[in-house]
Write a structure and sequence with these properties.
Layout lengths: L2 H4 L23 E9 L9 E6 L8 H17 L2 E2 L8 E9 L3 E7 L7 E2 L3 E2 L1 E6 L2 E6 L17 E18 L5 E11 L4 H13 L8 E7 L8
Parallel strand pairs: 2-3, 2-4
Antiparallel strand pairs: 1-11, 1-12, 4-10, 5-10, 6-7, 8-9, 10-11
Length: 229
């Protein structure tokens, strides 16, 4: 369960409206809205950095270290150098994540459609070929013409739960404390598993990093083939 939820903070970042179409499909791409701002973020040239928890409640946790390593791997791939001691880091990367308790969504799907039945005109006539020639019949109509049966064509209504997850990252100058970068990634999905959500949010955050300051972009990430709720 989300550390943010346990602390009563829920998702603290500003939500960007997300399309909910296709959420139930396991093979759908993971889509996140990513917003990033930067000021004097240095071009990668081996500068040292370390990743720390922005939420003190996450600091030292095994789960946090796993996700922090993902962030460090992306930073290193850009050309920065990871170090363990914050006092030796030229940049401090502050990192937080969470998922809310979810909310119910109700949808309807087309119900059974009898190909021979019209709700206003009863059963339509169809032609049958017999050994004696072609005959006209009405398939299975127990009521005859004009019966408006509400069963046929009724839409099926069902509900499911959607969750809003988010990741927040800040980069400060390790010497002056000046804010160099801040960004957040948000997603709506039918999964609340942090083990699935956080790696995808991290990948979305670093797609096209650092991006254009102040721009919000929709990032699609290939889904985990084995991801299950």
């Amino acid at each position: 369960m989300s550390k943010l939820t346990n602390l009563g903070r829920a998702i603290k970042w500003t939500l960007v409206p997300l399309a909910l179409a296709g959420l139930a499909a396991c093979a759908s791409p993971f889509r996140a809205d990513v917003e990033r701002f930067q000021s004097a973020l240095p071009v990668p040239a081996g500068q040292t950095f370390t990743v720390v928890a922005d939420d003190p409640g996450l600091a030292g946790g095994i789960e946090f270290r796993r996700y922090a390593q993902l962030v460090a791997d992306h930073m290193a791939a850009l050309g920065y150098t990871p170090v363990n001691d914050p006092s030796n880091a030229q940049m401090i990367v502050r990192f937080d994540y969470g998922v809310d308790n979810g909310r119910e969504r109700v949808r309807s799907a087309p119900g059974f459609r009898d190909p021979f039945y019209s709700s206003w005109y009863g059963y339509r006539p169809v032609l049958f070929r017999t050994r004696y020639g072609t005959r006209v019949g009405y398939v299975g109509s127990p009521w005859g013409w004009g019966w408006n049966d509400s069963f046929f064509g009724r839409d099926e209504v069902y509900s499911y739960t959607v969750y809003t997850s988010g990741l927040e990252m800040k980069i400060d100058d390790g010497r002056s404390g000046q804010r160099l970068f801040e960004g957040n990634a948000q997603a709506v999905s039918t999964s609340n598993r942090l083990q699935y959500l956080v790696p995808n949010l991290v990948q979305a955050m670093f797609t096209g990093f650092p991006g254009n300051s102040g721009e919000t972009v929709r990032i699609s990430v290939a889904p985990e083939q084995s991801a299950r709720r």
